[in-house]
Design a protein that fits this description.
This protein is mainly alpha-helical. The chain has one domain (about 5-305). The chain is built from 14 helices and no strands. α2 (about 20-25) packs antiparallel against α10 (about 210-235), α4 runs antiparallel to α8 (about 150-175) and α4 (about 65-85) packs across α9 (about 180-200). The longest helix has 26 residues, at about 150-175. It is globular.
């Protein structure tokens, strides 16, 4: 890989990686649904301004907006809330690792839902390695009895499954759209879904104004980790091959782990290191690290799960 391309990959990972740190800081004072609602609203507004500055518009109302609504709920609203709620009980480093399991679930679902993407012995081996890693991560909390940490881990796992579902769905229904159109519309729909839920569940109008750390986390998550991340991703999408882009999957958890340990003083136990090693090896295997060419769906799976 050329040095210039690697620097682009490193930049994208550095933009997406801190998202879990931002969530951990912000969710301490801002309830999860309200946090995500504000996140997607600010990000969609920012992306819309970029679209208008480029002289482009969102598509007119029609069938495509039904697809945007589906993606808005399952690619943003639900998984973002699950990760934000989960980080009330789980360290940000562990959240970044679980976020990276999306390609494993994509392989499993694609076998049943996509006619031309069946399970192969290599993909099966990678999936089993990743699942072993997940068991290693979750086992200690399960052995201690079902508690808040356990539910947090399970919630994040469900979020990764949601990402896998939307990878397959977007491949079938949202290919060929101009850059930034889909994420802008999807984030708008997510904000629409979450606004009434926030008002009813969190009642943000009754809460005290968050402190500067939480507000900084919210702004960093909305503008840096969502709006800027999508803008940079679609900018370099035409510059880098899918093989090169897939490296982002391996780098983001490293950023997430490092920031959690350095900034938040999170303590990593032996099972987290071991589980991460199994998951990383599994993701590298199912994404074809040991092959010269990879199916399109696996290439997409390496990037769809990164927007958290």
């Amino acid at each position: 890989m050329k040095l210039k391309n690697f620097l682009w990959i490193l930049l994208l990972a550095a933009i997406w990686g801190p998202s879990f740190l931002f969530i951990k800081v912000a969710v301490q004072e801002i309830p999860p649904v309200t946090l995500v609602m504000t996140r997607v609203a600010l990000a969609s507004f920012t992306l819309y301004l970029i679209l208008r500055a480029q002289g482009r518009r969102l598509p007119p109302m029609g069938q495509v907006w039904r697809h945007f609504a589906f993606m808005g709920f399952f690619a943003h609203a639900l998984p973002f809330v699950l990760f934000s709620w989960g980080e009330l009980h789980v360290d940000s480093a562990l959240a970044s690792i679980l976020n990276g399991t999306t390609p494993l679930f994509t392989v499993i679902l694609a076998h049943f839902l996509v006619a031309d993407d069946r399970m192969t012995p290599l993909k099966l081996a990678g999936t089993l390695l990743g699942l072993v890693g997940m068991v290693v991560l979750v086992a200690p909390s399960l052995l201690g009895g079902v508690q808040a940490e356990t539910w947090g881990l399970l919630g994040m796992t469900v979020a990764a499954v949601c990402y896998a579902i939307t990878i397959i769905y977007s491949r079938e229904h949202l290919r060929g759209l101009p850059p930034l159109v889909a994420p802008t519309a999807q984030l708008m729909m997510a904000a629409i879904f979450l606004l009434p839920v926030s008002l009813v569940v969190d009642k943000p109008y009754t809460l005290a104004l968050p402190g500067w750390p939480a507000l900084g986390g919210l702004l960093g998550l909305s503008l840096w980790g969502t709006a800027v991340a999508f803008a940079v991703y679609y900018h370099i999408l035409e510059k880098l091959s899918a093989t090169e882009l897939s490296m982002v999957t391996y780098l983001i958890p490293i950023f997430g782990i490092a920031l959690g340990v350095i900034v938040l003083d999170e303590q990593l136990t032996w099972n987290i290191y071991l589980g991460f090693a199994f998951i990383l090896l599994g993701v590298m295997t199912v994404n074809g690290l040991f092959r010269l060419r990879r199916p399109l769906l696996k290439q997409q799976a390496t990037v769809q799960s990164l927007g958290d």
